Amino acid sequence: MGLLDSMLGQVLGGSQGGQGDLAGALGGLLGNSGGPEGLGGLVSKFEQAGLGDVIGSWIGKGENAPVSGGQLNDVLGSDAISAIAGKLGISPGMLLPMLATLLPSLIDRLTPNGQIPEQGVGTNEELLSSLSGLLQKR
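RE: above sequence
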């Protein structure tokens, strides 16, 4: 985990603002205010890529299945990955392993009852709170 911690440290800069930047970038994938799709749309993208069981394990109770950076690139598309990386000021190659580590835990945390909440997973501020909780466990 040392490399991931180092990458997170570079992206977050040890500041709350960095975590906000990351939550804002992830808000486009997950949050209610990030776009019309949110987590439900992300689930659809995983299913279309043949990885519905992977994201289903993150939402459901039990062990989270791993995902690779390459699989995330296939699911999200290189344009989306480049846009998120650009918001964070890092390369897509640096972002993908971070997302592969963070997304399973973050989605698991955002779906504590084993299903997507009807009201969605929240705003960027709520994502920031969940992300902060995950990072404090590191």
